[in-house]
């Protein structure tokens, strides 16, 4: 008698081929199914404040046809956050709106949506403007989207975030939910510790993990002793998630690092020569987890790692450098 597994995914069946050639279907344990990720590319470099006379206000890059990355110019504001636009067949999700109210993310996103709809012969997509968290360098552009047709701007407060995505407040922050853009499901994880309403988005099609300000090549800011414990738990939650789901790259919302190991730029640096790439290997989650665990109950100032530094602002000022 031979056996083989069929239909990996939400469930699997075991097909037993008997001695007389009869097939017997027997329920088997669930087997996770992870197809190869949709491929994408990153630009050779991002605008990094080195040529303000010629740099655009926003750099627009297609990771692939259905996943776009936008970077605000450091010449507009030193934070230079990244904004993500993800397309499904029914909705386009915009994550964050930049650190300057008039930089032009609203116009840029509408242009992308119009072009995508024409290329894909789609009707009007609903545009959902959400946020990695509520800090102003990720929400300042919200007014650009106000009053636009087919646009919903998700509120910043914890209550508004919970209500929109369907989180049970009693299960926050342990609960994980999904959000369907139409033929494209995102996993939405709660990752407070940098800010109480912080979210991480996982795109199953590209297997990209979008971590906001809790993981990126730069200063991982923690603002209070109470936040320290929450931060460590969120990093552990991300590490556990990545252990069960394939992660191609970890993408945060800033770059505050040079390409050299330990090459930390002080917060507020206006230009980044030799800037680090945006994308991080998933190994970074383990590295942050181990660094935080070694610190114990109280974080340490200035413990610079290869591509991040945990920065407890309540113990060492935000302007204290690296």
Summarize the structure in words:
With 322 residues, this protein is α+β, with helices and mostly antiparallel strands. It folds into 2 domains: 1-33, no CATH class; 58-312, Metallo-beta-lactamase, Chain A. It contains 4 helices and 17 strands. It has helices at residues 105-119, 158-165, 225-244, 283-295; strands spanning 2-6, 12-17, 23-28, 58-64, 67-72, 82-87, 91-95, 126-130, 151-153, 176-180, 185-190, 199-203, 208-212, 219-222, 249-252, 279-280, 309-312. The strands form 4 sheets. Strands 4-5-6-7-8-9 form a 6-stranded mixed sheet, with helices on one face. Helix 3 (225-244) runs antiparallel to helix 4.
Give a short overview.
Helix content is 17%, strand content 26%. The chain is α+β, with helices and mostly antiparallel strands and 322 residues long.
The figure for the number of domains is 2
Number of strands: 17
CATH superfamily of the largest domain: Ribonuclease Z/Hydroxyacylglutathione hydrolase-like
Helix count, DSSP H or I runs of 4 or more residues: 4
What is the residue-mean pLDDT, rounded to a whole number? 90
Helix-strand string: EEEEEEEHEEHEEEEEHEEHE
* CATH fold title of the largest domain: Metallo-beta-lactamase, Chain A
The CATH level-2 architecture of the largest domain is identified as 4-Layer Sandwich
- What structural category do the secondary elements indicate? alpha+beta
Q: What's the end-to-end separation, in Å?
A: 64 Å
How much of the sequence lies in strands comes to 25-35%
CATH class of the largest domain: Alpha Beta
Label the overall shape: globular
Low-confidence stretches: 1-32
Q: Helicity, in percent? A: 10-25%
With strands numbered from the N-terminus, the spatial order across the biggest sheet is 4-5-6-7-8-9
Largest sheet: 6 strands, mixed
């Amino acid at each position: 008698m031979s056996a083989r597994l069929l239909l990996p995914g939400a469930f699997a069946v075991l097909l037993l081929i008997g001695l007389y050639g009869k097939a017997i279907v027997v329920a088997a344990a669930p087997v996770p199914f992870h197809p190869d990720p949709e491929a994408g590319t990153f630009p050779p470099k991002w605008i990094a404040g080195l040529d303000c006379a010629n740099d655009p206000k926003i750099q627009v890059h297609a990771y692939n046809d259905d996943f776009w990355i936008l970077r605000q110019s450091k010449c507009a504001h030193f934070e230079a956050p990244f904004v993500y636009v993800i397309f499904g067949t029914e909705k386009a999700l915009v994550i964050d709106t930049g650190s300057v109210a008039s930089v032009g993310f609203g116009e840029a996103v509408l242009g992308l949506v119009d072009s995508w709809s024409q290329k894909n012969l789609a009707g009007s997509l609903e545009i959902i403007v959400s946020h990695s968290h509520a800090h102003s360098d990720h929400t300042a552009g919200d007014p650009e989207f106000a009053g636009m047709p087919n646009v919903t701007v998700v509120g910043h407060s914890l209550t508004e975030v919970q209500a929109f995505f369907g989180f049970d407040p009693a299960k926050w922050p342990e609960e994980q939910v999904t959000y369907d853009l139409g033929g494209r499901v995102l996993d939405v994880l709660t990752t407070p510790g940098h800010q109480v309403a912080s979210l991480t988005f996982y795109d199953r099609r590209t297997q990209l993990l979008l971590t906001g300000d809790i993981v990126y090549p730069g200063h991982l800011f923690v603002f209070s002793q109470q936040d320290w414990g929450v931060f460590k738990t969120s990093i552990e939650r991300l590490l556990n998630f990545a252990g069960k789901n394939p992660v191609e790259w970890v993408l945060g919302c800033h770059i505050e690092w040079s390409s050299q190991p330990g090459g930390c730029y002080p917060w507020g640096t206006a230009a980044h020569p030799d800037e680090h790439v945006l994308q991080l290997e998933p190994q970074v989650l383990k590295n942050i987890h181990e660094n935080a665990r070694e610190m114990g109950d109280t974080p340490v100032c200035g413990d610079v790692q290869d591509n991040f530094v945990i920065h407890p602002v309540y113990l060492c000022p935000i302007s204290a450098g690296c």
